[in-house]
Each structure stands twice: as C-alpha cells, then as structure tokens.
Design the sequence.
C-alpha cells in the first residue's frame, strides 16, 4: 500500500493547493435554498409552505417564521412515525434506507433517526474534507500507508421491516469506499461482532498483525480498548504494539476530559484531531493544527441556527421555548454559548440536536462543543453548564495531580437543604472533603450565578470518588458498551437514585 499511500498524500496536498477560501455564510444560504427546493413537494414541505418561503427576499428569516422548533419527540410523533409505517415523501423525498439508533446518552430507549442516501453522501463529503485537512498537519508520507482503526458500533445492521438500523458509526462504516477497505481495521468481520467485550477481545488478539497509524472513535471507549490490547500483550504502552501510531481522531464528546488519562497509554506524543459526528449528521471537524476548535461543515447537507443558551429559553425537559430567538451564522458572536439547531438532508427541520456550542472564530465558522441542553443544572439558580463543570474538574486535576475522566452529579435535598452531589471517576486517593472544597471554590470563581446560589439556597457540595470503570459498567447495564453511548453528566433525581443503587451493588 506504499504506492497508494503516496498517491493519497499527493492528492490531499494537491486538493489543498487548489481549494479556494470558502464563505461559510454564503454556503449556508445555498444549503438552505437547495434543501427547501428539494423537499418542497414532501408532506412537510407542503404543510409549511416551502415554495412560498423560497419566493421571499430573505429566505432564512421567512424560514424562521414559518417553521417551529422540533425536538425528537415532536419530529417523530408528527412526521417520522409515518416513514416507519412505510409512507414516502414525508420529510424528505422518497424513503430513507437507514435509521440511526441513538439515545444520545445512556438509556434503554433508542431514538430512531432517519438517514437518507443524501445524508450518507453528505457525511462522505465532510469526511473527505476532513481527510483533505490533513494537508495542514506535519504528517510524513508513510503515514498514509498505515491502517486506520475505527472503533464504532457494530456494522451488522439489523433489518426492521424495510429499513436497516444501527448506530451512525456502524452505518457509516458499512458504507466506506471500496478503496479504503484495505486500510480499515478491525475489518468487516470483526466490526460485525455485536458484543462489545467479544469484539475488543478479538481486536486485542489480532492487534500485532496490524500496522495502525490512526485511531478513530469516542475517547472513553477507545481508552478501554487500548487498555485491553496493552494488558493482553503485557506491554507498557500502545506504541509497543503499534509503533507507527501518529493520529487519534476523537469524536462524540470533547477530548479534553480524557486527555490526561489517554496520553498515559502512549509511548510518545501523537496528533489529536477532534470531530463532531452525531446520529443526525457530520457537523464539524478540526481543520488546522493551530487550534482545537472544529470547523462547521457549512456546505454539506446541514443548515445551522443558533439560540442563545439562556435559562429562560430552556424548558424543564430540555426542549426549547418557541419564542427563543434563533441566529444565523452571520449574526453570532464568539464566546457565547448557543443551543445548536439543525435542518438536514435526512428530513430534520429546525431540530434541537441537544448540544450547546460556542464560536471561537466566526469568520472561519469554528466552534467548540460546550455541553448538552439537558446537562444544565439550574436547581436553586446555580446555572451550571457542562463546560463550567469540566473546567472546574480540570482545575482539580491540576491542583491535586490526578485524573478525572468521568463524572456525574445531581441536586439532592438532604435534611431539608439542597446539595450538589458529585461522583468523580478517579483512582486517586485524594480526600473527598478536599476535592469538594476545591471544586466548590473553583465553581464560585468561574460562575457568578453559582456563587450567588451558594450564598442562599445551595447548602454545599458533596463529592464521592469511584473507579472510572463503574461509569462504563453503568453504560453497559443501561444500553450497551461502545458505539455512540455517552455518560450523562447531569441526572434527574430518579435516575440519580438508580445510579447510586447501581454503585452500591458493585
């Protein structure tokens, strides 16, 4: 594959040289117009008057006014259920070939999100753009000869009536281009193994026969796989098995919380590239090494809107108030948390994906993920978002020289007083009292609303440390290991009681 690797490297460099600078705002306007025109004769397009919207001078403003926000339940109950019943031309022309199964976070009931052939093509377009961006990184030609370990969910998709179902990583892996199959590991047969533990065991058994240059997957599950490979072969680090490993493409969640523990599995430094692939589409990817931020994919099947992330716009169940203002790409500012709203070529329209983002560079349309709308703790006015929580935990890691890759918390009433009760995933023996005090102080310094709440209705902070593996076992008990499963950072009272009961059984 050395010759092919050189060809790929040359093609990437050539494409980068020939690529002209993009205008994300114009690209988004074109995407919206194309999508509305394509879907104007669907049931959704007729109901909401897409043809009339297209006649307006300001299409994006007309679109905002005509279409309400939809969360999954609204989109599914009113529209997607009809697709599952066998009807066509509902929210996108024809019928989707796939449904992506996603619970977003650990949960027993999966969402079923349509994935059309147009979306498969859009994901491929963004994937090619991401690969092309490797021209900006200082990678040697022989890197492109090496194999890629993509650790996702099973590619053995389930047949449900006329549709194939699986997690989005399994769907995309089952649609990889023919020329890439020689590079792709663990290979089609192993990738079809549904049981996570069996699949990882098989990967460990075969690991030495592969020359892996890049890894791709969710950090928490990738860590577990690497630990299994290292333990199976009784070596010090993963570079003893894969000496040519140079890149990790992280996706699903932010990499930063896992960075400290992940790098301890390596023999030397590697390049980390963040991506944002969700069940609804490939949203963004890191396009240059000077920043950890990701570039929105503004020209490939997804139209973005941004709602300021303020408590008055978020309903108790995490959905959006219909009077919440939505901004387009030319109206946003850096450093502000926004709820991400998407419309896609899979027939999702003004859809609340559940993530919050902030712009780091508006002109380049570069973002970072800051949290989830449901992972927003506002009991007694504390107004804690996930990014504030994770920033505080990074402070703890630095202060006590420990690793905290996983956590969850809830607001609990104890003896008539509210406390924030945290479970921190760490193997450190640091005093829980010291951790609670430092965590409380960090949050007070970083969040004015939290400081006010601590002076009034929020009595204090309680910290319990547990082995990080307990979080992975909880995920396995509630759904299954691997794939797109992500740990809930903020739990409601009932789920938190279940979590504590699970811990007490360990």
Sequence:
């Amino acid at each position: 594959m050395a010759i092919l690797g050189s060809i790929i490297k040359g093609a990437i460099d050539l494409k980068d040289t020939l690529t002209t600078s993009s205008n994300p705002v114009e690209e988004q306007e074109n995407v919206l117009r194309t999508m509305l025109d394509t879907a104007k004769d669907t049931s959704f397009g007729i109901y909401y008057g897409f043809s009339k919207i297209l006649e307006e001078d300001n299409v994006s403003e007309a679109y905002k006014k005509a279409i309400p926000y939809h969360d999954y339940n609204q989109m599914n109950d009113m529209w997607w259920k009809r697709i599952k019943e066998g009807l066509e031309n509902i929210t996108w022309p024809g019928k989707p070939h796939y449904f992506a199964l996603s619970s977003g976070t650990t949960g027993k009931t999966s969402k079923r999100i349509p994935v059309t052939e147009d979306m498969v093509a859009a994901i491929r377009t963004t994937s090619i753009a991401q690969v092309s961006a490797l021209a900006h990184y200082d990678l040697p030609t022989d890197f492109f000869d090496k194999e890629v370990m993509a650790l996702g969910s099973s590619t053995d998709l389930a047949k449900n009536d006329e549709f194939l179902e699986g997690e989005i990583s399994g769907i995309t892996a089952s649609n990889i281009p023919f020329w890439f199959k020689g590079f792709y590991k663990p290979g089609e047969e192993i990738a079809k193994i549904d049981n996570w533990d069996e699949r990882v065991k098989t990967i460990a058994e075969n690991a030495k026969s592969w020359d892996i240059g890049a890894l791709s997957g969710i950090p928490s599950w990738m860590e577990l796989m690497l630990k299994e490979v290292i333990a199976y072969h009784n070596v010090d680090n993963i570079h003893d098995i894969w000496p040519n490993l140079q890149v990790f493409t992280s996706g699903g969640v932010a990499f930063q919380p896992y960075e400290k523990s992940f790098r301890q599995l390596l023999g030397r430094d590697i390049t980390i590239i963040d991506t944002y692939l969700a069940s609804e589409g490939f949203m963004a990817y890191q396009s240059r090494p000077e920043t950890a931020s990701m570039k929105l994919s503004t020209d490939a099947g997804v139209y973005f809107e941004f709602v300021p992330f303020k408590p008055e716009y978020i309903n108790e169940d995490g959905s959006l108030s219909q009077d919440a203002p939505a901004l387009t790409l030319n109206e946003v500012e850096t450093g502000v948390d926004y709820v991400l709203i998407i419309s896609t070529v899979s027939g999702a329209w003004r859809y609340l994906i559940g993530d919050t983002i902030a712009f780091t560079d508006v002109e380049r349309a570069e973002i970072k993920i800051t949290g989830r709308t449901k992972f927003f703790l506002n009991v007694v006015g504390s107004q804690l978002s996930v990014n504030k929580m994770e920033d505080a935990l990074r402070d703890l890691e630095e202060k006590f020289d420990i690793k905290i890759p996983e956590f969850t918390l809830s607001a609990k009433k104890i003896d008539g007083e509210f406390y924030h009760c945290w479970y921190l995933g760490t193997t450190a023996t640091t005093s829980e009292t010291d951790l609670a005090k430092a965590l409380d102080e960090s949050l007070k310094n970083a969040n004015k609303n939290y400081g006010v709440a601590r002076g009034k209705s929020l009595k204090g902070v309680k910290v319990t440390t547990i082995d990080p593996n307990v979080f992975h076992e909880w995920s396995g008990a509630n759904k299954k290991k691997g794939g797109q499963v992500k740990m809930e950072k903020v739990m409601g009272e009932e789920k938190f009681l279940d979590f504590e009961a699970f811990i007490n059984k360990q």
Summary: The two ends are 48 Å apart (CA to CA).
